[in-house]
Task: structure prediction
Amino acid sequence: MDGSKEPMEADGIECGQDAAEHFGFAAGYRNLNHGSFGTYPKSIRSLVHHYQEEAEARPDPWIRYDYPQLLDESRAAAARYLNAPASTIVLIPNATTGLNTVLQNLVYHPGDTIIYFATIYGACEKIVDYITETTPASSHKINYTYPISDADLLSRFETAINTLHSQGQTPKLAIFDTIVSLPGVRMPFERLTALCRHHSILSCIDAAHGIGHLPLDLTALDPDFLFSNAHKWLYTPRGCAVFYVPERNQHLIRSTLPTSHGFIPAPVEGKVINNPLPPTGKSDFVTNFQFVGTMDNSPYLSSTIVLIPNATTGLNTVLQNLVYHPGDTIIYFATIYGACEKIVDYITETTPASSHKINYTYPISDADLLSRFETAINTLHSQGQTPKLAIFDTIVSLPGVRMPFERLTALCRHHSILSCIDAAHGIGHLPLDLTALDPDFLFSNAHKWLYTPRGCAVFYVPERNQHLIRSTLPTSHGFIPAPVEGKVINNPLPPTGKSDFVTNFQFVGTMDNSPYLCISAAIEWRSRLTYHGKRGEDAIAAYNFPLAREAGRVVSFALGTEVMENAEDTLGGCFFSNVRLPLSYSEVAGEDHNKAVKVAQWIAKVLVEEYDTFIAIIFYAEAWWVRLSAQVYLTREDFKWAGGVLREVCERVGKGEWER
Result:
């Protein structure tokens, strides 16, 4: 890892005009509202650019190996600043995500009540509304008008607790601020935390205006949950926030928002979920938050299209918005992306829904796959179940093969099942006509094949289904709660004049939205590519499709193995080829699956550390496979080199180097 960075500014910056010179304000602009979105010094901007350059110089190695180490260093620095153990601190995009994560992880029973205060941030009150509409929980709002004394506020809190108990309710959690957003006033959060502890109520502190604004000693304060934006007062880039959960409560936070690779589902015998990321050696809590979908880790605009950070967020948004009844079943396929299967597990553990997995092993014909889908539907109906939604890919991640998603979508429509297409490898890779395809939901990463920055993804919901997607993840200002007479929630953002669906996704907590603004530039850049008299999308397809096939031929020849394909020759209808490595499962791993996974991890790490490359390796169907990606910046010679390197590394595996 290259640790060189732009030099930080010298010590001794005088507050006032001297300090202003270190920020990037336009001439004559006076930034009198730092509290809303913050800003950060030029030296920090240089550091951001450094990390972005590092990520683009070696994308896979940096994201998989360097970034976790840098993230740990950042977490440790935040922990020291807040006087908290590093094991209790993770980083999230913004405080809105923090409250959503807490409220959507807790388990509620009839009588459980969420207490909150009249000056709660508007988006946070909408989160509470969403929870009370979708779970057995109820809420209790403590009303008052500033100015009010701390003693009066504390008295009203105790009165609310006693009133709820007298009504047979259970105050489960109380939400309050360090500093209210509007009006900008300090709350007696220390004493409110102590009162929560005294009454055995979970304390949930929205410290959006906290770190860098007030001295916070989290060991002394000892809240149950606290989240604090670093991009407001600590001068980090947007969206960066600290999320504190003491070890006694980490078992309550089982899933991130969105649910991703770190989620640990309830054990099911024989069930294995592929995780493409290297093991961390850290606690489950820290691991859970380390990689939450692809996004820019250096710190969106039609009636059916909104922009989100990544495809993982897309599936989470769909599954966590749908309402499930006993008998409802989610159908998915054996080659689902690992994080997506964990989302399904989370839903089936926390709602009445069940799931049905269609098992198979590639290579498999499209006809066989479609037949298994229809069989699953008929089987579920015969068992009195209701197939509610089916999740399937355009192109599977590992192995990298094309699915017959068009025909699967048509079958869903025929059987009145919601079609949910994970097109993580979609836009910019395959021609997609959403009007003709007409899925119920589709999400597609733009940062993979369309050349936008991370994280940027397209989320398509036809107008007929937009009423089903009531909340973003996290719930924010755009959510429209069920009407309650006399209830008004403050929204600090200007009216949009757009549909409720588009408005909902326009502002989902403070974050760096610059990737969302790069789609048109990425499309324009693609339009300039040429190949054999073709231009733009035609040129890209004409170059990448044959190159992917040639890559498979070259590497399989070098290894003396074969390319994964079915009898219909449809699996390779994409920019991927999958080649088997010349390794024996019995000889190398003794037919031990765990050892086989370690072999794959060793190969990946050696490719990074010794050969300065990364190639996706998967242990699948009792064999090791390599996924090769064709791209406009690669040539046949690159894959010829890859074949030689892979042959050499496989020889080292055969000699037992992976065990040393």
